[in-house]
Amino acid sequence: MEIDSPPLNITEEEPIKGLKYAAIEVPSGVRGRMAIFGPLIEEAEAAIIMEDAPFGFGCIGCARTNELSMFYLRKRGIPLLELHYPTTKEETMEVVNKINTFLDSLDQLEDKNG
Predict the structure, then answer these.
(1) What is the mean pLDDT of residues 36-56?
(2) How many domains does the structure of the chain reveal?
(3) C-alpha torsion angle, residues 58, 64, 11, 18 (rounded to 10)
(4) Structural domain for 54, as ranges
(5) pTM, entire model
């Protein structure tokens, strides 16, 4: 593929669909990402948000998309687990334990409701 070819997972229609989640003034890369993430957020029953990722983790469009995604997730009112990106082995183990506890709590909630 040529260098200016679009990614394989985004069609010409995707940035238009992304207008549902982001205004026309928002860069097309953010709209394109939101066209993919938006429907996932709408269907999500719970989410894990990882904050403070390393500086080089993704591009500026990714950062703006992350901010918009977190806004929509919080607005949805679904169960959320918000964690800081671990920087040590101990923090990593703590993050894994928190994720396991969060997922177990979702299982318990589902058992009660269902």
Answers:
(1) 87
(2) 1
(3) 160
(4) 14-81
(5) 0.74
